[in-house]
Amino acid sequence: MSEPFAVVADPTRRRVLDLLRTGPRTVTDLVDALGVSQPTVSKHLRVLREAGIVTVRAEAQRRWYELRPEPLAAIDDWLAPYRWMWADRLDALGHHLDRMEDPDA
Questions:
Q1: What dihedral do alpha carbons 94, 97, 98, 102 form, nearest 10°?
Q2: Residue 27 to residue 23: CA distance in whole angstroms
Q3: For residue 99, how many other CB atoms are within 10 A of its CB?
Q4: pLDDT tens for residues 52-84?
């Protein structure tokens, strides 16, 4: 398993990434949002930083963590051949809904 897959396999790290999608956050912000201890958050941030998925910038006593989506491209590339399954199912659902009668009409 390549590194991006191993890194995002952990549910806490996925939650950290979800929080960072909206913009940079401090460790304190992440601790509050996740409801876990500061050492736990720091451990997960270290793994994400070592994998190159997040960057850190110091600003006085604060450390701001920011998402770097480029390393996640490997996961997106791996998923690409499977998207047809979802697209076909969504198209079928759309056709089914189009054929249904509108109960409010």
A1: -150
A2: 13
A3: 7
A4: 999 999 999 999 999 998 888 888 888 888 877
